[in-house]
Each structure stands twice: as structure tokens, then as C-alpha cells.
Amino acid sequence: MDQPPPSRTEIFRVDDAPLLRFHKRLALHSAGGPFLDGYVLSIIGIAMVQITPQWGLHSAQQGLVAASASLGIFFGSFLGGRLTDRFGRRGLYTVDLVAVVVFSVAQFWVDDFWWLVVLRVLIGVAIGADYPVATSLLTEFTPKKYRGPFIGSLTVMWFVGAAVAYVVGDILARVSDQGWRWLLVSAAVPAALTALARIGTPESPRWLASQGRIAEADDIITSIFGPHAVIENESGLRAGGVGALWKSGYLGRILFVTAFWTAAIVPLFAVYAFGPKILAGLGLDGRMANMSSAVITILLLVGCVLAMATINKLGRRTLLIQSFAWSGSTLLLLGLFPDAPTYVILCLFASYAIFTGGAQVLQLVYPNELFPTEIRGRAVGLASSLSRVGGALGTYMVPTALDRWGVGPTMLGAAAVTVTGLAVSVAFAPETRGKSLADTARI
């Protein structure tokens, strides 16, 4: 049930507003982008099982196909961040998903390795552009009490998308030896539904106010929250371009966000893109490896839900540190004991899936809280882009590492990356729990 608007007549901040049905709809619609991200990056792992022998792809080519969407997200996140800070959130909020539909459908007719890479890069560009747009819009409308869980829910939807991809993949891959074409096209369905649902979403009043369009911002605030709601000025920052990110100390924040985000996704993306192959190397073959990947994905979802539920209780800093510490420990054990019994291997993978939830959820929470409205999109976009460089390199290197060194050393490498994220978090992670956006954006 929605809480009723405040009955008092005095001014109140949007950061202190009650939770409305509008917020719930906005969170659901904003989750479409992360859902597609998880779906697109996971479905390729199952599709590659058919594509590889049909096209005779070697390890480097497999890695490039798997990493191509992440490369696209690198460019798309950066571009989307710049565009949304300059032109607003509302316009790109629908257009980017229309592009996902077009490029996903085009994959059905692809018969060339390089064309497949190009199309998946373009899909990645469109999905990447959605991150700074959707997360900024949701952040700027959501009251502080619900901001962490709501933004965290977007990460949860990443894992929902990944889990759905494994289930859909297992079904469609058995249709025919060309089932991989339907796998790749299938992303167009959730993209189209999300684009339609987003039509009519209002512009962010915080962004309008940052552009001096006060009357328009007031109209939107009044229509949603009532006549006594206001938003606080966050910074007064007016500098343009990426240079604004490190004015007044923001360079340190962007480096922190990029470092921990990269450390969180490198092992995760490797597991998703080549989960069945990794599990096969650990003794699980065929359909058992595919279904185990789906179960692990569901447990990753559980871990993110638990993190989202405890983010306000534990705080951002504690949640991040504990997540890296425990997930890194499980990867270390996998690397040290790759020949352990099957049930031990599955328990360790399940533990990693649950413990990594905190680091995954905070990837979108921290950058949206640590930067003011004027540069929020660029900050989220740049951090997402830079972290995807590591994610793409990690994904690209996994098949080669598995072929040359085996599963054990590959898992030890993933553990080393996670421990690096732990060290960065202990040294630099701030606490933003319970603070308004005006407070969290201050240096």
C-alpha cells in the first residue's frame, strides 16, 4: 500500500517524501536495462556451445564474441552519461531500448563472425547508455529511505535476466542446431516490453532545476508529491565535460567507484560467460553444467536480494567489505582445491554466489549517491565504462586461461582480483546511509 502524502502544510524535502506507486513503477521500468544486460551477457554462453563448432571458432574468437557486448557497454555508458547530463534523462530512457530491439533481431540472419561481433557491440552500446540514464532518473526521484534498496533492486534484475537466459537457453538450444539464432533474437522481447512501459515517464525535476528550468521542475514535483515538496540544491556545479568529475575532489571518488566495480565484475562476468565450461572443467559435464549454472545464477539473485534487504541496516561500507572478504575466500578455495568432490565444488560456487551480492548491489548505489545531479550521469557512465574494460578483458581471457592453465589457476586469478577490491574498499569506501543527495554529493 502507498503511504499517504504528508498532511502538514509546511515545506518538506523530496528526500523525505513517502513511498508512492509512482516510485514503484519507476523502479520496475528502470530495471529493464539491467535485466537485458544480464540476459544478453548470459545467453551468449549457451549460444556459443552451438556457434563454436559450426563456425570453427578458436579460443580467442570465442572470447571476443563473449566480450563484445561488454566492449559496447564501455562506449555506451560513457556516451549515455554525457548525453543524459546535457539533454536530460527522459529522451534516452526509451530510445536506447528501441536500439536493443533492432540489433537483437538483426542477429538472426548473421552468418559471419565479425558481423556477430559488431552487432553485439552495438547491443552493448545501447544497454550501456541505459545505465546512467535509468539509474540517475530513479535516484533523483526516490526518497533517501528507499534509495539504497531501490537502486540495489536494479542489480537484482541483472541476475533475474541472467537466470531467465539460462532457462530460455536450455529450451531453445534443443530446438535445432540453429537454436542459437533464436537465443540471440530473444533479447528483443523484454527490450520491446520495457520500451513501451517507459513511455510517458516525466523528466527528472532535479536535472531541470540544475539547468535553471525551475518552473518545469516545480510542476513535476507538485504533480507527484504535492504543492509543499521541494528539492535541495546539491552543488551548484556547472562545469561541463568529463573534467567536471574531478573538480573539487571528485577524481578520488571516480577512482574508488571504478576500482571496486571492476573488482566485483571481473570474476562474475567470467563465471557468466563461461559458467558451463568452468563447471565442466571442475567435473560437471553437459546439461548438468548448464543447469548448475542456472542454479548458481538463482543463488546470485538470492545474494543480491539479501544485500538489498540489509543495505540500510549494515550500511554501504560494511556491506561492501564483507561481500569482498567472503566471496574472495570461496574463489580462493576453488582455486586451491579444483579436484574436490562435486558437492564441495557446488557448495563453494553457491557460497560465492550469495556472498558477492553486496558488491554487485553497490555498483549502482555508490556512484549515484556520491556525485551531484549536474555530473551524476557522467560519473555513472564513466565508472561503468572503465569497469567494463576489466570485465571485457577478464571475459576475453577466460577461455585461453582455462585451455592453458586449467580451472585452478583461473579461479586463483579471480580470487586475486576480489582481494584487490577488498583492499580498495577498506581504504576508501565511504558511508552514505541515511543521507540526502545534497549531503552525499558534498566533498
UniProtKB/TrEMBL annotation:
Q: CDD domains per the record? A: MFS_SV2_like (cd17316)
Localization (cell)? Cell membrane
What Gene3D superfamilies does the annotation carry?
MFS general substrate transporter like domains
| InterPro entries named among the record's database cross-references | MFS_dom, MFS_sugar_transport-like, MFS_trans_sf, Sugar_transporter_CS
The Major facilitator superfamily (MFS) profile domain, residue ranges? 26-433
One Gene Ontology molecular-function label = transmembrane transporter activity
> Which GO CC terms are listed, alphabetically?
plasma membrane
- Bilayer-crossing residues are 31-51, 63-80, 92-110, 116-138, 150-168, 254-274, 294-312, 319-337, 343-367, 410-429
As for membrane topology, the entry says: Multi-pass membrane protein
| Keyword terms, alphabetized | Membrane, Transmembrane, Transmembrane helix, Transport
Tell me if Transferase is a UniProt keyword of this record: no
Name listed for the protein in its UniProt record = Putative major facilitator superfamily transporter
Source organism phylogeny: Bacteria, Bacillati, Actinomycetota, Actinomycetes, Mycobacteriales
